[in-house]
Design brief:
Shape: elongated
Distance between the termini: 49 Å
Number of strands: 19
Order of helices and strands: HEHHEEHHHEEHHHEEEEEHEEEEEHEEEE
Number of helices: 11
Radius of gyration: 28 Å
Strand order of the largest sheet: 4-5-8-7-6
Oligomer: single chain
Strand content: 15-25%
């Protein structure tokens, strides 16, 4: 099978990384359910990978280089030849009369890996003939160290993780290296990009040293981290409520249908009730779902005063970046409800009277 892959250079990655992502995506698309992908990586590939990562200042996770078994998204990846010398594989292929293709791009020494392969590794191997196996052993030792760091991070994270956020007060009790270790681990568990050491140090300083009422934010390609009320929120760029594209600015809604509003805003549905929710009579008129523009008010208690929605959201601790994504249900100029958080008491179902209860689900976390 020959597949053409489009290399996207707009994602903030270099040519080699972008090409690798495109290549694996093309391979993954050919897999059937239950199949795994096997690649022919060998000891010399491992040598090249470790050297590249060492020169880029990687930690032990990076210096562990490639593993025999791993995952890329939903694809299970096996490298059964990883611990075999390249010369042994080539000798077998020649003896068995196998043909192979040399990719012409492998000769391009402007690419970092090829520069190492052609100009650096031969010199190292001439001086240290067993360099391939020695470096492969070093990668395995780094993998052991990485697993220990992951075990420590997992224990630290157990006391830090509060649903989809990290408790800043508990995080601050850890030493700087353990703070960075646990944040890396949390990012890795969510499949998010790991920043460089310098980026992470700067990010942690920004997030932990700002004043108690501040709301600092840090970002690098693919990731956003925000602080609000002593918690750190981790987002992939595509699911970040401040960056995510929303399908529409408002909706006409028939309550007999589930309203789909995208991964950030979720779904809105209605169900009949008695003595709860919005009075059923208000669902006879056309309904519109809108989002905050400012100045909205409602009465949340039957005999209470009319309150500004802005104040209710602040008092409830709803994160600022989700406040503009909460669906507001209107009939004409009357605000009936705010998601399934509050029903306007002026339009609520009376005791024993037919009502409609709202269910707002599958949205990004609120608090």
């Amino acid at each position: 099978i020959t597949v053409k892959a489009n290399v996207d250079l707009a994602g903030g990655f270099g040519l080699e990384a972008a090409a690798r992502e495109a290549r694996y995506a093309a391979l993954a698309a050919q897999l059937q359910p239950g199949e795994v992908l096997l690649t022919a990586h060998h000891q010399r590939d491992q040598f090249e990978t470790l050297l590249l990562r060492l020169l880029r200042g990687a930690g032990v996770h990076g210096l562990a280089a490639m593993s025999v078994q791993s995952r890329r998204g939903s694809v299970k990846l096996l490298r059964p030849l990883l611990n075999l010398p390249a010369g042994l594989i080539q000798a077998y292929a020649s003896a068995a009369g196998l043909d192979w293709i040399d990719d012409p791009s492998n000769a391009d020494v402007s690419i970092d890996r090829n520069f190492l392969r052609h100009n650096v590794l031969p010199v190292l191997q001439e001086r240290w003939p067993s360099a391939d196996s020695a470096v492969a052993r070093a990668a395995r030792l780094c993998a052991d160290a990485a697993r220990i760091l992951d075990d420590v991070a997992a224990r630290d994270l157990a006391g830090l993780l509060d649903r989809d956020r990290l408790k800043l007060a508990e995080l601050s009790k850890l030493s700087g290296p353990r703070q960075r270790n646990v944040v890396r681990h949390a990012l890795r568990l969510r499949g998010l990009a790991i920043p460089s050491e310098q980026q992470l140090r700067q990010a942690m300083a920004t997030l932990t040293q700002a004043g108690s009422t501040a709301q600092p934010e840090v970002a690098w390609p693919g990731v956003r981290i925000r602080r609000y009320r002593q918690h750190l929120w981790l987002y992939a760029e595509e699911t970040d409520p401040r960056c995510a594209k929303v399908p529409a600015a408002s909706y006409s809604w028939s309550p007999g249908e589930v309203l789909e509003m995208g991964p950030v805003r979720g779904t809105l549905a209605a169900a009949p009730s008695t003595g709860a929710g919005i009075a059923a009579e208000y669902f006879e008129a056309p309904l519109e779902v809108r989002f905050r523009t400012g100045g909205e008010r409602l009465r949340v208690a039957p005999k209470g005063r009319t309150r500004e929605l802005k104040n209710l959201l602040q008092e409830t601790g709803i994160v600022p970046w989700m406040r503009g994504h909460i669906p507001l249900i209107w009939t004409g100029e009357h605000l009936l409800a705010v998601g399934d958080l509050w029903v306007n008491a002026d339009f609520a179902a009376r005791e024993d009277a037919p009502g409609i209860q709202l269910k707002w689900e599958k949205h990004s976390p609120l608090c």
